[in-house]
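Table S2 (continued). Query chain:
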Amino acid sequence: MSNSVPSAAPRDRRLDLYLRGRGLRLRTRPASRPRCDQPPNASSRTHPPSGPDGGTHLAHRLGHGTARTVIAAAFDHAHARDPFAERTWVVLVDGDLNEIQAISDEPRRRSRTIHIVIDKIHVLEYLWAAAWTLHAANDPAAEDWVAARGLEILTGRAELTAATIATATQGLPAGKREGAETAVRYLRNHLDHLHYDEALARGWPIATGVIEGAARHLIGDRLEISGARWGLTGAEAILTLRTVIKNGDFEPYWKFHIAQEHARLHPENYGLAA
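Corresponding output:
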């Protein structure tokens, strides 16, 4: 499903888009995804080794607007980085159906192919809600149950997981099925975007931790300091500056800024030179 790439194309072959709030994070180098990423179960208490480094990332502040305008801006930015469709485009989302529809509309309008992947962490949250529907509070078996269901989904069997949960709830009173029924509905509504076996085999990311970290670092560490009160204009200016610094672009930006200010304050010099 990946677009063919000429032999002279750059080595970076995948472009991942992480959309959250009003920010975009792009991954521009491939990162392998070993099977050790699978969650441990309660009985083994083993923990997988640290995963690989994700490579180079680019943070980009998209500003404010409607969901569709922000998504369109994200695609504009991605297109500027890959104008000839030399990379595979992977978009990670948290499962909002309206957001998925808006994202799906963009590649049709641009004649591009994308691959949408649901954040695995959000799927696990629904599994935990189902687990506490089917287990007593603080039952350690719930952890093993979530690990088993999560592994099923990782291996591309989300429909089996939904059927298993639906079957397990049949004997429960109607008022106690909510968590499990919500999980079943969520899984079945998103089956097209739960092919984690394919994503892992291709080295695609399956979670949006990178954008969660960016939001915490770029936004939270600065805008949420004690006693701060922000207006939209000032907050956006600070976030833009922090993004420029994070990307390592401050020096060229500052030279450009000085040149622009000089041209604005001393236009006669440029007129004489012309």
